[in-house]
Amino acid sequence: MNYLSSDFDALKNEEKVLRQHFEEIKAKGLNLNMARGKPSPEQLDLSMGMLDVINSSSDCHTALGTDCRNYGNVAGIDECKRLFGDVFEVDPQSVFVGGNASLTLMFDTISCFMTKAVYEDTLPWYEVKNRKFLCPVPGYDRHFGITGYYDFEMIPIPMLETGPDMDMVEKLVAEDDSIKGIWCVPKYSNPTGITYSDETVRRFAALKPAAKDFRIMWDNAYCIHDVTDTPDTLLNIVEECKKTGNEDLPILFCSTSKITFSGSGVAALSASETNMKFLLDRYNFQTISYDKINMLRHAKFFEDYNGLLEHMKKHQAILAPKFETVINALETQLKDTNIANWTNPNGGYFISVNVLNGTAKRVVELCKEAGVILTGAGATYPYGNDPDDSNIRIAPSFPTVGELESAMDVFCVCAKIAALEKLLNK
Amino acid sequence: MNYLSSDFDALKNEEKVLRQHFEEIKAKGLNLNMARGKPSPEQLDLSMGMLDVINSSSDCHTALGTDCRNYGNVAGIDECKRLFGDVFEVDPQSVFVGGNASLTLMFDTISCFMTKAVYEDTLPWYEVKNRKFLCPVPGYDRHFGITGYYDFEMIPIPMLETGPDMDMVEKLVAEDDSIKGIWCVPKYSNPTGITYSDETVRRFAALKPAAKDFRIMWDNAYCIHDVTDTPDTLLNIVEECKKTGNEDLPILFCSTSKITFSGSGVAALSASETNMKFLLDRYNFQTISYDKINMLRHAKFFEDYNGLLEHMKKHQAILAPKFETVINALETQLKDTNIANWTNPNGGYFISVNVLNGTAKRVVELCKEAGVILTGAGATYPYGNDPDDSNIRIAPSFPTVGELESAMDVFCVCAKIAALEKLLNK
Prior knowledge:
The structure is a homodimer.
Chain A: H1 8-27, E1 32-34, H2 41-45, H3 78-88, E2 95-97, H4 102-115, E3 132-137, H5 141-149, E4 153-160, E5 163-164, H6 166-175, E6 179-184, H7 198-205, E7 215-219, H8 237-244, E8 250-255, E9 267-270, H9 273-286, H10 292-302, H11 305-334, E10 341-342, E11 351-354, H12 360-369, E12 372-374, E13 391-394, H13 401-424
Parallel strand pairs in A: 1-12, 3-4, 3-6, 6-7, 7-8
Antiparallel strand pairs in A: 2-9, 4-5, 8-9, 10-11, 11-13
Helix pairs in contact in A: 1-13, 4-5, 7-8, 11-13, 12-13
């Protein structure tokens, strides 16, 4: 039933049926969560073997002879630099291996630029009173959290099917030197799941920002996180930047949070010589070294990049049916209504749904009433402000397929009810 | 032979004998290191069992049901909060458990105050252009590194046998509101090994700083790190601050870096409600959670505070003979000469030696020539500037007792030669 072309009585009748269904669902007392991109226990179980590769009889030395139990090696052990070098497709010498969270590496990077100048003729961002950051929307709430904490004015950039609207990005950064950076999840973007096109990557590499210290925060969180057998590919931004002489533009981030353990993975960044020196000037005071035993544990468990890719196949086997469940529910229950559209990504952790404008908050509220927790409406926009009140991020990884089926029934019913409430009150 | 009361010819003769001895030592081609407070492999071996308490068949949930493998619990797991609560002698609810390094928690604390104001009527320290920090000397170079990085003017405060010179501290903080804090290692201080007297702690708790946002960085790094059976005791600053209404004054830090693994321990801080809220406002953006599996690993390995103290006895058994070796060498080889004095601490990681004024750099240089690496002279002072060029920090933990004996022979010969060079050139 196409809600947008149906008459009042038909809609009224549909609403009555749905309200009854909603009451039946509520009576079930569901308690399901599709709010955060958390791996399921089954996925975490895939890495339990990693907890055995270092034990009381292990030699905890690296190939180069570093005792991982002791202090030292601020930039991480070579074994992990090589592994992340392969993930990033960069020279391992440009890699810094940190603690358990790439979010922390990103926060610390912004924090570093806040109080120190990367070039002699630039200012610490703290001193740029009208500092701004570009935020592709819908995007990742925790990115916006960092630049929000540091009082940046956050400028939303629409996400197109090819990535951020590059016409807008190019124009803005060229004319305003208080714009200091942009948040990017270039592959299987959070939450739309789209991957930046080759042209988008090339245009990023060719940017001519007015701010010499403009930085692309290239959060490649889902770089090897395919959920289908037709994975996306992403152009190597480091190589492109070499061609344009813009080596200092991007800083790359990733982690094993969604590969091994979300709480106990290893994070890494890759940066140009200038950026790395700038960041190391800080890290040399911030720490003596990050957890090298956990680095060694990861390096031994995977052995090499191929081992990592083999491991990702196991995640794919668990995640693929969950993504299919969500897409199937949307297709069968919402497609005809014409009140919503959604992405169908080849990887990552999310499906992005746009419900009828002005109803996202209401959908989330109704779902909660029926025992299904979603990411807060607006969370995918800076300041939590989705001007269309339309975007909802669905995170299908944590629930079981059975739970997802129930949760998606709830979601679709709620999306319909919210739409009908709006259409009937026009 | 008392160098200070001997005549020129006697000193000249002594120098000749020592130079010959020095050449013999050099010929041995030693390669020893007493530079950093690094635990020895034997000490690290004490915690190898910890690598077995969590393995592939472990239940990784906390008592409260948190899956340590997944995201969440930004302030750490309850099991570790309790353990560190006992170490700090504070309410576990005032504890934040972080990553592997208390240095990082300290850096991040200063970093937090740099760009945000803790009270409505104070300023982010970045905006205090002549910001200053008090630095007890000799002290810990990595502390000075943090406030140096953030461009504080660092004011040296002499260390007395009771702790920092409190007359000076009280006077300075009362009259200058650009003084924002002081670095303290209150127990087995780095490098002198002295423990603050009860009166010193009470005077800290009773400080009336002109700066409302003055903070005491209470780095209790060696809180349970005794090396003798007559350990020092430290008054509980949190309790004292409750009495004076100065709860926001201290922020406490510690870690298991010198309890389990220096590279893979767990660090914690304890702070007042106001400070904790201020810091959590940042941590909630900086991370989703620190490594909870490593927290659980520690909690399970020690079980409770008594388990921790039992473990420290094993460290003591390894460290005590090393401290004795250093003290014996100093007593037998340097005491008569009257050119040096030193501390004889009941715990911690260091022995602080004052050689003849104006010779510390030369002693370090001579030692290096003979194959013994010491902490750089001056490192224990802000800006590496020891005005007397006298203090040298000896770190006896890493070498074996045999190596220490050789290294201390070198040290004593070099201290004597440097003194003679100075005395003979008067």
